[in-house]
Specification:
Layout: H1 2-27, E1 34-37, E2 41-42, E3 46-51, E4 58-62, E5 73-74, E6 79-81, E7 85-92, E8 102-108, E9 115-121, E10 153-155, E11 159-181, E12 192-197, E13 200-206, E14 217-238, E15 256-263
Parallel strand pairs: 2-8
Antiparallel strand pairs: 1-3, 3-6, 4-5, 4-7, 7-8, 9-11, 10-15, 11-14, 11-15, 12-13, 12-14
Amino acid sequence: MMKRIIFSLVVMLFCKVGISQNAATEMFQLASPKMNVSAVFFDSFTTLEITKDLPNSVIKYSLDGSEVNQDSKVYNEPLKIAESAVIRAIVYHPDYLESDEVQLEVVKTVKESAIKSLVLNPQPSEKYSGLGATGLMDLKKGSAQFGGDKQWLGYQTDSVLATLQLEKNSEVSKVVLSALTNQSNWIFAPGKIEVFYDGEIIGTETYSNSKIEASNSATFLTVPVVKGAYKTLDVVIYSLSEIPEWHQGKGTTPWLFIDEIIIQ
C-alpha cells in the first residue's frame, strides 16, 4: 500500500514538473527576425535576406503589406524582389510564443532621380541640416537611428515647401516621401502632403494622428497625382498640428524628419 502511495506521489510530481516546464516554454517569446536588403531603392531588383536566432523555428512573411499569420508563405532562401514591396515577417515555433513582427519597405525607382534640382523653404534646423536639399534626391536611405545620419533633414515647423525642377517633361503618377517616426524623440510622420503644379493642386494625402506609440521606423508616404508630364512640382509637407495627448510633449509642434523625395 505504502509503495503504491509513494509511486502515485512520484507520478504526480513529474506531471507537475512537466506542466510547469510546458507553461514556462509557452511563455517564452521568440526574438524578432532580422531583415536585410541589398538596396532599399533599386531600379532592377533587390535581394532580401531574413534570419532568425532559434534553430527549427520558421519565418513566415508577406511582400504586399498584408498581415502575417500561420498560413503565410514560409521563408527558405534569399528572395529577389523586382517591384516596390512592403515586407512583413514573424518567427514561429510550436513550443514558443511567436515573435513580434518586423517590417521593411523597398521602393523601385528609375536608374537616376527624375529631380534635376530641389529648393527648400524654410531650410532645415541647423542641428539637423544633413546634406541639405541634395540629400532628398540622391536615392540614398537614412537609417532609423537619426543621430549623426546625414541623410536626414530635421524641421520643427508647421510646413515645408520643396520646389522640384524635373528632368525635361517627366511622366509622373506618384510622389513618394520618406519620413522618420521616432516618437520618443518627438519625431512624428507628416499629417498631410500636397502636390501642386503651376499653382493647381494635383494630389493630396492626409494621415491620421497617432493614437498610440509607434515603433521607430522610416516610412514611405505615397501621394498619387493627376498623371501627366510635368517640368516643375511644388510639394508641401505639413507636420502634425501638434503632438498627441498621450505623449509627454502633447500640444507642442513635433519634429519632422525627411530624407528622400521620389518621383514615380
